[in-house]
Amino acid sequence: MSHGNLSRRGLLKGALAVGGGGLIVATAGGEVVAKSSKLAAKNTPTPFTNMFRRPPVLMPFEQGVDDQGPFHRYRLTQCFGRASIVPGLTTAIAGYNGIFPGPTIRVPQGTRSEIRIANKLTVNPLHGKKFSSVTHLHGSASLPQYDGYANDHTDPGSCKTYKYPNWQQARTLWYHDHNHRTTAQNVFAGLAAMYHLSDKYERAQLPQGEYDVPLVVSDLAFKADGSVAFDGEDHEGFMGDVILVNGVPWPKMRVKPRVYRFRVLVASISRSYRFTLSTGDAMHVVATDAGMTPKVAAVPSYRQAPAERYEILIDFRKYKPGTKIELRNLSNKNNTDFKNTGKVMQFEVVADPAGPDPYVIPKVLDLGPQPFANRGAIDVNELKPEMATARRTMRLERKHGLWTINGETWDDVEKTNFQRVFANPKPYAVEIWDLVNESGGWFHPLHIHLVDSKIIARNTTRDRKAHAWEGGGKDVFYLGENETVSALMQFTTGDGNAGGRYMVHCHNLIHEDNDMMIQFAVGDINANDPISSDPAYVDDEPERAVVYAPSYPLGT
Question: What's the whole-number average pLDDT of the chain?
Answer without folding.
Answer: 93
